[in-house]
Amino acid sequence: MISGMDAPLIRTALPGPKAKAIIERDGKVVSPSYTRGYPFVMARGAGAMVEDVDGNLFLDCAAGIAVNSTGHSHPAVVAAIVEQAGKFLHMSGTDFYYEPQVALAEAFNEIAPFGGPKRSFFSNSGTEAVEAAIKLARYSTRRYGMIAFLGSFHGRTLGSLALTSSKAIQRKGFGPMQAGTFHTPYATCYRCPVGLKPESCQAECLDFLEHQVLVHLISPDEVAGVVVEPIQGEGGYVVPAPQFHERLRALTNKHGILLIADEVQSGMGRTGKMFGIQHFGVEPDMVAVAKGVASGLPLGVTTSRAEVMDWPPGAHASTFGGNPVSCAAAMATITLLKDSLMKNAAEVGAFMMDRLKEVQQKHAVVGDVRGRGLMIGIELVKDRVTRQRAIAERDKVVEACFARGLLVLGAGKNAIRLSPPLVLTKAQATTAVDIIDQALGTLGT
Predict the structure, then answer these.
(1) Nearest-angstrom CA–CA distance, 170 and 332
(2) Residue 300 sits in which domain range?
(3) Threshold 0.90, pTM exceeds
(4) How do residues 358-380 score in pLDDT, each as one tens digit?
């Protein structure tokens, strides 16, 4: 059905009868903790197009929450998966050796956004990659403290959850949180936490970390690591000023604190560079990667400077981490990113941003359009002067996009995130922007 299709085609009421039946079954047996924004039930996909179980075609600008980096079922990735699956599915790299895991570690030695020798630990997901980073930072420095930023999302397992501060509901009922974790303001320039203007910003938001947290709450020599998203994801696709990361790197260097870049959402070509931190001219000591690294297969990677990853056998492990099939998919993904998709993300992302800026001029409800590459956020406000958050309006726009055949997701309280497959074409980007324009029009703005 999808072959040759390049635009949405809605054939039934949404959800259709088959989708309704599956959703009803889901409601009886699947955890109610999952957040579903609208009733899309996947049947198949190709590139940036997906089809639901009732034959409706959608343009996908969510990509499984930024996971399907090379598009749905890219032939090169599928071929790599099939080839490896025909050899062996699993052998546990924690107890045995196999070449796909070694090859992927070598690939990360090449692409990781810092110099020198490196080592990688493999897991299954973003939260596991962050958990490994927490443990490694504490082990390597022999310190206990961890610092994260308000609005951040680093996962939902208990260690990473202590770092997460995107939404209170994500933490509610699971406390007390892991001790030794402290939060400080992120450089949310559209809503500057210290009331300054972006054009005069000198990362004064970091004054709170330097002169409050590290003075009154924890001594710098007890802080193992600072975990930061180069571009905040769940917090609203927030792009900080370059001096934020520059000053943060200088501060961590001063106190011997490891700088850990959470690249789970911003990494693997999404921003037009292999890693989001590369837009800011600083080098971290460690990166945590997942989502788009294997084009849809479960894989987490924690890569650090070799001298940091000095823990002994048995200190940390994962039975399924670095699964050979996932490693094969990741190798194919990295090749595609290098060959064309990073460049495409940069070019189509810039094109899409320009078009969205035009839409912003038409609709007063659009307060800000921001992003890098194909990691784009649209923040909706009730008033551009007061910047009062348009929360209900955001939800209505997401639903209106779905009704017109476009899959998007919310981020933060009132932003729409666009994280399409990196194969998105300019024609598809135009279609997506046109639908967003139409959906905004339903608000009467």
Answers:
(1) 34
(2) 77-336
(3) yes
(4) 999 999 999 999 999 999 999 99
